[in-house]
């Protein structure tokens, strides 16, 4: 993916009030960072064979609303954020298709219902892993993706595209190991 195309995508995200956007070449899924890793059938190429890049967008869930949970406010904001992610994923995919790159937005929740999730706790695609591989944050001890600006209070969705971003301008940050983070915690709080 050219720098010019990335700049257009970033500009589009800015116009849509999307504060987090990152790019991950799909080859990154083939190099596990830890175990267990994303199974092959849940990787981008297995879902959309034309995929060369995954674009990840994130919207924050504001702390004052999170602090009201469980509440109708939190429930409605959660639904609103999810709807915005789906709509904006669609808009970015449509933009890329118009630019000549086959692209699809991936729904932010990849399971049929909470009942299905209780029986089989997996989604068909992990936006958390995509956000990690796109350099938007790192996993914390509790397996939540932590971002620099919003901490764990972010919802993500992804766009699979045939636009290739595997060049030197990939914007990937280095993942810190959970063990390195644990060592920096005060006292014995890092011991289980």
Tag the structure with descriptive keywords.
two-stranded antiparallel ribbon, globular, 7 helices, 16% strand, four-stranded antiparallel β-sheet, 192 residues, alpha+beta, single chain
What does this structure look like?
There is one protein chain. The strands form two sheets. This protein has a four-stranded antiparallel beta sheet, with helices on both faces. The N and C termini lie far apart (43 Å). It is globular and about 45 Å long. Mean pLDDT is 85; it is low at 168-182. It has one domain. The chain has helices at residues 3-15, 44-47, 63-66, 72-98, 114-119, 127-133, 178-184, and strands at 20-25, 53-60, 103-106, 138-139, 145-146, 154-161. The protein is of the alpha+beta class and 192 residues long. It has seven helices and six strands, in the order H-E-H-E-H-H-E-H-H-E-E-E-H.
Quick structural gist:
The protein has 192 residues and is an alpha+beta fold.
Number of domains: 1
- How many individual helices? 7
Biggest sheet, strands in spatial order?
1-2-6-3
Write down the overall mean pLDDT.
Answer: 85
Largest sheet: 4 strands, antiparallel
Order of helices and strands: HEHEHHEHHEEEH
Strand composition percent: 15-25%
What structural class results from the helix and strand content? alpha+beta
- Termini gap: 43 Å
Quaternary organisation: single chain
Q: Strand tally, please?
A: 6
Any idea what the shape is? globular
Which value, in Å, is the CA radius of gyration?
17 Å
